[in-house]
Input
Amino acid sequence: DCFIDENYIINNIEKLSSIEQIVIVHGRYDFICMPSAAYDLKNALGHNATLHIIMAGHSGSDTVQRETVRAYAAMLWQ
Output
């Protein structure tokens, strides 16, 4: 019971419309959560979002992924 319903975020995209800046970071080699889903999310969000595909996979232990997320989080909280 750790997962949300399929397409839950896309189906409720209006709840995110008040967020001024959304950064989506997705691993190019993530074949569990497909990069196409991140692309669809970015398109649904429109101008509020930027998408960055990084050279990483699904694992949270990927050094590149962890460091990229850390850098974006620091940027957002400046």
